[in-house]
Amino acid sequence: MGWNDDNIKAFRDSNGTTNYWGPRLVILHSIGAKSGEVRLNPVVGFRDEAGWRVVASKGGSPENPSWYYNLRAHPSIDIEAVVDGEVVTVPVTATEITGDAWRVAYDAIAAEEPQFGGYLDKTDRRIPVFQLTRR
Questions:
Q1: Does the pLDDT at position 56 exceed 80?
Q2: From CA 108, how far away is CA 10, in angstroms rounded?
Q3: CA distances from 63 to 24, 122, 123 (A)
Q4: C-alpha closest to that of 25 among 117, 3, 74
Q5: Half-sphere exposure of residue 48, counting CA atoms within 13 Å on the CB side?
């Protein structure tokens, strides 16, 4: 098993209470942009009034994670997330936050989790943020 598989298993087995991110972790069930196959990716989800925000940071690397392209190609996905203390599957629509709203969203995320602010110092790219809204 790899890192993704280990984190997904721990998240599911513990009902979202283990690993570093605990209940903030969400599992994206994205559709491969080229393959059309379901891909599972554990990412940090920041709750807000509309649902969740996820950051395509890839730790501040110069390129976007593969799931970024999947969400752009197929924005209607499911996520597994902790809701009211239980891991549930939630159908969502992923919308990339752009323009001035991107800065507001990214600053709020960095205020909540400072390491995300540091990712901006590691790369020249504008790190994408997606809003995941319940369908």
A1: yes
A2: 28
A3: 24, 11, 9
A4: 3
A5: 17
